[in-house]
Amino acid sequence: MAMRDVPASSILLVTFTSKAAAEMKLRIAGLPGVRPAAARAVQARTFHSFALAMLRHRGVQDEVFGETQAQHTVMKMMLRQLGLSEAFQPESLLSALSAWKAEGRSADELPETVREESDAKRAMLAYEAWKQERNKMDFDDILLRASALLRDPDVLQPLQRRFSHIMVDEFQDTNALQYEMVQRLAARHRNLMVVGDDDQTIYTFNGARQESILEFDKVYKDAKVITLDINYRSDARILGLGSNIVAKNVHRRSKRLSAAGREGLPPQFATPSGPEEEAGHIVTHLLGQVEEGRLRYRDIAILHRTASGSRSIFEQLIMRDVPFIQYGAGAVFYDQSLIRPLMDHLRLSLNPRRMESIPSTLGPLYVSREAGMEWIMREEKQQAKKYPLIHLSRWDRLRDFQREQVKERIRLIRSLTTMKPAYAIQEMRRIFYDKYLESGDTGAWTHYKETMQESLEELETAAKRFDTVEAFVSFADELSERHRQMESLRREEDSDAVRLMTIHRAKGLEFPCVYWIGASEGILPHSSALHSELPEDRRAGAAPTTAVDNDAALEEERRLAYVAVTRAKELLYITSPASNHGKPAAVSRFLLEAYGVIPEASKPEARRSSFGQPKGASGYSSRAGAGSPASGTATRVSSRPGPSSATARTTSSVAGSQAEPRINVPVWKCTDDACKAWMRRDTTSGRRTSAASTSTPPVCPLCASPMTEGTRSIPAR
Question: CA nearest 299: which of 564, 495, 512?
């Protein structure tokens, strides 16, 4: 605009969030030589808002049907009407349908070569018909219909004449449909600029195609590629760790990044015994930092791989009155739709007349929640029962076997209080709940089922901490009540509160201090990436030209680890719990690779099993003056000093697996026998960068006990 007199109204900026679009317009207004009126004239929109504006301009007035829970309810209704309720999960079908549409295809084009495909297609078409009858369209429909409009020259050509310059932000997140729209709009003038980072392609489950950014200069052979190689966010050592993690990926653009962010501390690591100890250590550690005035709560983010992976840290934050905002999650873990029926069975075992706990128990009895509760409440007015569920045994709408199931379920509920809570959950799963979730299943493994299994295992893990059902239920209820009291924080964007979110949700954000939890095998990389193939609902969204195999899935997991690390500006704490859901979990291969260690078992099939725990000790530790983690050693929590560097290297050294000579080095050791924390002590006279390099004994970062001088054996490399 300022240099080439390009009219502001002919510039189209496209991104993925309204907040990013508004930020771009704000920055344009602050550029020298750009008048406020010109800044306002620039079209900065999300893909969906641009597409919706197109549709509205062409007279489409359908209502946007974007509420996820409402979509699930409608799909569930369609499955029930078709007699397919026991064959499919609504979440899986909606996910597969969304991935299909992201490729630019309609539901009519879905395959139906086998019975399962035919049934799934019937349900999806019924869902589509329901929307059409009510003049509704979801977000996928908006893009699909807008893309169809752009195939009409009468629609496309005026837009091409209007927008001579097009720019796309976060290009690596575009799906095939969005990319096709951009290509059509830019075809006339070919003034197209895209900005993105192939190392942050983490949304392939939403249809994002890494090939779009990797092959952009092959599609547009006259394109100029400009590498933005200066990172203004992170400390060089934090950026170095991230760069060395992602450098192991094969399918990426090689780049060498330099750090220009504010200097912080080297990444620090801990290996707690499991998620409970992990959560306790982290909350104690962050409370110490806040109490000592080094950080505010709002400076801190805790990042986790999956929704269920936040359960332990969520509970610690609640119970220790730490203000926090959880993004992307609604109810407390124990109140989630998958978990609630089991918890309500436990609640009814303590108080069978707890009426608010009855509705969620009706689904596993294959009884309509609304109609069932209406019958129970009507009968209760006639004659109250100790177990109101018993009224269903006299409901003429139920078959004989269903009435008998009601009686059996009441007998089970009565017995639950005599069991340990973890065993009670296992019994409910064995007797009816797993069958209810998977009954009539076609046998196809899906991402939703993987997540479901993970959440149920997490529930059992949580229950093992309690000796009685009453104690477990009381804890869950108190947690829910405290969470309700803290919900006001979510509505205040600038609240002084810790941010708790998945790594996916954190992309594009930055924080002075980041805790990355769950850096262990099976968590990150996630167990789903270690299967021989992707689940059906994720495979549906994969690009046709992409090999959907272990390597592709692992490369995306590695990019997730890179995103987690590079959210941190000055302080990064990484924890690798040694167990997950009661099973041993080795430290994440991504960390070991970054420090030059190759797992002993490197064959493809070995990815399904642990590769052994690296040498080291528990507790946070850091490298004094390290420039790139590739020069460090392969312990779980500590690494040797390396050369200082202002830039973050993007290559990493590779160490052999043979035995190495070891040396004794001076360290600070925690004086608490129950705590295994230690930190490397710098005895040189050079520049001191952390508590570990001072002569005064520091306080243990895990348990706040005093530390004392000692030695530790580490590899000599």
Answer: 512
